[in-house]
């Protein structure tokens, strides 16, 4: 197959981790007989510096001409005092909105060889296998009005019925492919938007009798994610709650550096990016963990290109490298044992190259 991928490295560690993922995709292309055309474009602080715009028209055009987008991360102290319209994060929100990427999938699965790095007791972390389905283009991050003065500030939490319905349906579809359990997380004891959210979940569940649904409040959910994370299968939630809960869930499996994500619209087009941010304090040092971005590239192969065996080849290689005890600094026991971003990526590439093709259907991350 021939596919076009827009690559938006962004800021901080974004360029390092996307470079690693592109190298892995190139090896996959060679091994499985595909051609991937990569076209790079700017977003975030990088785009502000070059074009005074966190999401330039040229970047949108390159993404529109592509089959999928691979993104690193945006943001950093250099732009923190910029006016709102010139913040790197605005570029990320704008690309999600422009392409209607309403369904953000964030799988969190325990990896046996990483359990020792989890802050949780091994018996609590070892069975974790959940999928966070986060609404990505509505809610507080997009509602108007949104502004502040020194005397006051306003943000708006707005959801339409249609926005809630489509993400709820998506979560039921994923639950049917998994263990058939949804925890729908809201704040319905306070928020009006959550009351509508609950009503729509209850309406929709009638069409999915094989799926069990539990409504949960976000505050106690954040506690249960730590005390009993293995109890969750699909977590369905709105934009900001999903943002917060997914960073919390990431440490269960060891490091924010290993959690991938897919941001999908209704068709197969998607944007793939790690859950983490631009980690400015480690940028440029060659020590960032590229696993989250490499695994996001695997999600791209699965969801946008329908390349299941290729996705599994990457996931299997990442697992094997972890099993071998090879870690970047965020997971290694000591600085001496830590591999650089490049060294760790080379291990994954070597692993893919040595896999036999018949070996490629193994357990996948979602
Ligand atoms: N999707 C995106 O582009 C996101 C961007 N951000 C932006 O990133 C900047 C930094 O935000 P933070 O709150 O510090 O979150 P962060 O996710 O960048 O970093 C949190 C912690 O995790 C570590 N970390 C993150 N990714 C890592 C990796 N791949 N390997 C090793 N360690 C890793 C960092 O060093 C830091 O200690 C801010 O400007 C923020 O707005 C934050 C979250 C998402
Ligand atoms: C930087 C924000 C706009 C988004 C974020 O933190 C996320 O999507 O995880
Ligand atoms: Mg976040």
UniProtKB/TrEMBL annotation:
- Name the residues that bind Mg(2+): 219, 243, 247
Q: Which InterPro entries match?
A: IsoCit/isopropylmalate_DH_CS, IsoPropMal-DH-like_dom, Isopropylmalate_DH
What residues does substrate bind to? 96, 106, 134, 219
Q: Which UniProt keywords apply?
A: Amino-acid biosynthesis, Branched-chain amino acid biosynthesis, Cytoplasm, Leucine biosynthesis, Magnesium, Manganese, Metal-binding, NAD, Oxidoreductase
Domain Isopropylmalate dehydrogenase-like: from-to ranges: 4-348
UniProt-annotated site: Important for catalysis, residues: 141, 187
Keyword Methyltransferase appears in the UniProt entry:
no
Q: In which pathway does it act?
A: Amino-acid biosynthesis; L-leucine biosynthesis; L-leucine from 3-methyl-2-oxobutanoate: step 3/4
Provide the protein name.
Answer: 3-isopropylmalate dehydrogenase
Source organism: Sporosarcina soli
**Phylogenetic lineage:** Bacteria, Bacillati, Bacillota, Bacilli, Bacillales
**Gene name of the encoded protein:** leuB
């Amino acid at each position: 197959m021939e596919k076009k991928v827009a690559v938006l490295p962004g800021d901080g560690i974004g360029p390092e981790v996307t470079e690693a993922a592109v190298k892995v995709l190139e090896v996959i292309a060679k091994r499985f007989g595909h051609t991937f055309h990569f076209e790079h474009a700017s977003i975030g602080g990088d785009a502000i510096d070059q074009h005074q715009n966190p999401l330039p028209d040229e970047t949108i055009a390159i993404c529109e001409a592509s089959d999928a987008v691979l993104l690193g991360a945006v943001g950093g102290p250099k732009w923190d005092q910029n006016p709102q319209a010139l913040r790197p994060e605005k570029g990320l929100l704008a690309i999600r909105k422009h392409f209607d990427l309403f369904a953000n999938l964030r799988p969190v699965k325990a990896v046996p060889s990483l359990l020792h790095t989890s802050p949780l007791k091994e018996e609590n972390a070892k069975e974790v296998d959940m999928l966070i389905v986060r609404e990505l283009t509505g809610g507080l991050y997009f509602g108007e009005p949104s502004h502040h003065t020194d005397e006051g500030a306003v943000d708006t939490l707005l959801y339409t019925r249609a926005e809630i319905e489509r993400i709820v349906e998506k979560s039921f579809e994923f639950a049917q492919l998994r263990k058939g359990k949804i925890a729908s997380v809201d704040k319905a004891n306070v928020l009006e938007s959550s009351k509508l959210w609950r009503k729509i979940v209850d309406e929709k569940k009638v069409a999915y009798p094989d799926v069990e649904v539990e409504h949960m409040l976000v505050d106690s959910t954040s506690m249960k994610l730590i005390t009993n994370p293995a109890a969750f299968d699909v977590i369905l939630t709105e934009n900001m709650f999903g943002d917060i809960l997914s960073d919390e869930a990431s440490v269960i499996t060891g490091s924010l550096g290993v959690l991938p994500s897919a941001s999908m619209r209704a068709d197969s087009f998607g944007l793939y990016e790690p859950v983490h941010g631009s980690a400015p304090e480690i940028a440029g040092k060659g020590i960032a963990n590229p696993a989250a971005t490499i695994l996001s590239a695997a999600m791209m192969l699965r969801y946008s290109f329908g390349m299941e065996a290729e996705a599994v080849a990457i996931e299997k290689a990442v697992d094997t490298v972890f099993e071998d005890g090879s870690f970047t600094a965020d997971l290694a026991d000591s600085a001496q044992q830590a591999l650089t971003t490049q060294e760790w990526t080379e291990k994954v590439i070597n692993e893919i190259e040595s896999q036999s093709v018949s070996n490629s259907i193994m357990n996948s991350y979602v």
